[in-house]
Amino acid sequence: MEAGFSEMRNELQSRDALWRRIQLECQQLHTELLKIREYKDMQEIQIKHQSSCVQLTEQLENKNAELLLLAQSQEHQQEDLNKIRNHLYRGEQSHCSEQERMKTEISDLTEELHQKEITIATIMKKASLLERQLKMELEIKDKLLAKQQLLDFQYKVIESENTHLKEMV
Predict the structure, then answer these.
(1) Are residues 64 and 36 in contact, defined by beta-carbon separation less than 8 angstroms?
(2) pTM above 0.70, yes or no
């Protein structure tokens, strides 16, 4: 996008330079036109130089035609220049608003990431606590199971002795 803007700026500068050259030529032509008119006026006073006057008039008409063409060309160049400026301005505005949108989005995502990191840290603490609690409960249950097995074994031993004693009686 930057390359497009740079290219548009270069085109704008090129057209500005062309426009200035056209204005300078117009000023020169205008000065020349004034000189030709002065010369023409002098020639009209001097009747013997009528042929030169006709020639100057033709030159004047040619210069006027050139001046008109240059003026029209200048108008078109100015219109093109204004279009390019407007396009460049809209592009820059769009680029700036896109950058702002991206900054906002990055800020939002950073905040969301921070919140998720906090949530993960909290969950990890809770998971660690639950793991410790589960280990303690497992140890207690293992001890209770061992006691239960011992009691079962003792019960079977007593029951076996009881059965043996009953048989003896």
Answers:
(1) no
(2) no
